[in-house]
Amino acid sequence: MIDKALNLIITQLNLYIPEDPPEVVLGNIALNEAADQDALHEKIVLTLVNIEEEATLKNNRYYHPLPTTTQYLHSPVFLNLYLLFSANYLKSYDKALTRLSAVIRFFQSRKTFEIGNGTSLPPTPAPDELELSLTMDLYTMSFEQINHLWGTLGGKQMPFVMYKGRLVMLQDQKIFRETPLIEEIQNSLQSTL
Fold this sequence. Notes:
The chain has helices spanning 2-16, 93-109, 143-153, and strands at 24-26, 43-53, 63-65, 69-73, 77-88, 112-114, 133-138, 160-170, 175-180. It is an alpha+beta fold. The chain has one domain (2-55, 77-175).
């Protein structure tokens, strides 16, 4: 589901920034300086840098009432994805800033992404993909956090912006218990008077 969420964002961003070949690619910016990573050059590179569980939604019960039974499933995991958009334009700093501005304008004009609200992959989503909803919030980091981030990525800092994608839901559809519905209540209490 994480891959579907990121591909949805990339598809929508490439429609917003119409270039041939597409300007936005999914990749690990830490591998930018590797010899075989030419696909990351002169592009906006989307990198997943952290995954966090949304603790406020952790304890909800999850069940499906059906006409004759109730199916119990394990609660879904709701994730926050920290997404780094790096403008990897080594030949033109101006173009890097222009493209980065386009990314920020895109998310300013559109904050929520769902499988059904735009051109997305796949054309006929699976049932678990219908639950995909991602809300993007700009994530501001301190200078110390930026230093740690780029130090961890092992490269030189380039123009970037980070967004927090909230509430990607992951759930295994395995049913762990199925119980019949309560159809009748019997009262067998007797009076002792």
